[in-house]
Amino acid sequence: MKQTIAFLAVAIGLLPYSSACRAAESDNGPVKKALLIGIDGCRFDAVRAADAPNIDRLIDEGALAQPIRIFPARYRGADTISGPGWSNILCGVWADKHGVLDNKFAAPNYEEYPHFFRRLKQARPAAFTASFSDWDAIAQKILRDADVELDASGKDQAYEVGDQQIADAASKLLGEGDPTATMVYFGQVDETGHQDGFHPSVASYVAAIERVDAHIGQLLDAIQSRASRNEEDWLILVTTDHGGSGTGHGGGHDNPEVACSWLVVSGDSAQRGRISGEHGQVDAVPTIFAHLGVEADPAWKLDGTAVGLKQ
Ligand SMILES: [Zn+2]
């Protein structure tokens, strides 16, 4: 695990500068912020079976797209696992573009199709980005070069332990720092699914979702505690990379228990209710960009469209 205290101190140390930017921006309305919460391997029917008041509240105070696609009709060459899934979500393009077909990351095309933090910084160099995860591929391969980064993965460490470290560090930054876009990833639901089964009838799987839901509550409380909260407009997305069936999820293109995800778009600027139509994991990035006022350059060749935002 990387040491992050120094990174967090740097983030919080930037407050005066960021506050100056905020004063300039608030002439045009509230300051837009985005938080993307990723729960690995989380079936939506198990979320519904769980006692998950924080996810429920985000759905009630936002819009829900479910199910959404985890691969496009045009291309089935990537496996139904985390490398392609999180690359779809965080780069905003499908695997025939980003090139991640499995968890080996043999030939990623992230130079041409980078993660959305890099695009955000291109469009707005003063934007501040933060990434918290306990799957090392997120920190080391997919979401590189965030301004603040916690890689809480550890060889002998259970994801439950890493998830707690993530919730603590992320809520500190969300409460006291000034990030423009933050990604928070939790790994224990997928780990539990591989151990005991991905299914709403599996008590330990549902319990893992409930622990992550409590972490999400910690993040939401931190946002609400911000001194500047009343001058801000927070968009909060929650999603997953794939489902699961039995104790696995590879090769699940034709199994709806595996091959679908869901997307919650919540917060001040979110619509309320079900999002109709066909949507996919690649819609998360355009939605964040639309909220932050970043105009996507056609040269980026993003595959998705913004969903769930008030007009
Ligand atoms: Zn998995």
Architecture overview:
This protein has 311 residues and is an alpha/beta fold. The chain has a single domain (38-300), classed as Alkaline Phosphatase, subunit A (3-Layer(aba) Sandwich), CATH 3.40.720.10. The protein has 12 helices and 8 strands. It has helices spanning 5-13, 15-25, 44-49, 53-60, 82-91, 95-98, 116-123, 136-142, 159-176, 188-196, 203-224, 284-292; strands spanning 31-39, 62-69, 129-133, 148-151, 181-186, 232-239, 260-267, 273-274. Strand 3, helix 8 (136-142) and strand 4 form a beta-alpha-beta unit. Helix 9 runs parallel beside helix 11 (203-224) and helix 10 (188-196) packs antiparallel against helix 11 (203-224). It starts with a helix and ends in a 19-residue tail after the last helix. Residues 41, 82, 190, 194, 249 line the site of zinc ion.
